[in-house]
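Fill in residues.
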């Protein structure tokens, strides 16, 4: 009877082990998916940053009334002065 009991007990524990292993596998798959999602989000952010530029470039605009581009900050500093100077020329 001792050998039958040990077989029965070991059979039950192997089923529990299998269930625990499946649960661990499911958790590993979930963690893998989460890591993949985080990696994809980071890659998308990097691509967006590279496409938009580093942010240190000066913003340009078409100069009003002229046929060239000028730094936007120069115009925004004083639009009235820009147009006053434009009329002088």
């Amino acid at each position: 009877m001792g050998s039958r009991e040990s077989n029965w007990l070991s059979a039950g524990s192997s089923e529990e082990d299998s269930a625990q292993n499946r649960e661990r596998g499911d958790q590993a798959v979930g963690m893998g998916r989460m890591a993949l999602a985080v990696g994809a989000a980071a890659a998308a952010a990097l691509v967006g940053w590279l496409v938009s530029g580093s942010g240190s470039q000066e913003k340009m605009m078409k100069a009003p009334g002229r046929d060239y581009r000028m730094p936007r900050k120069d115009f925004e500093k004083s639009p009235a002065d820009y147009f006053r100077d434009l009329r002088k020329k």
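The chain has a mean pLDDT of 80.
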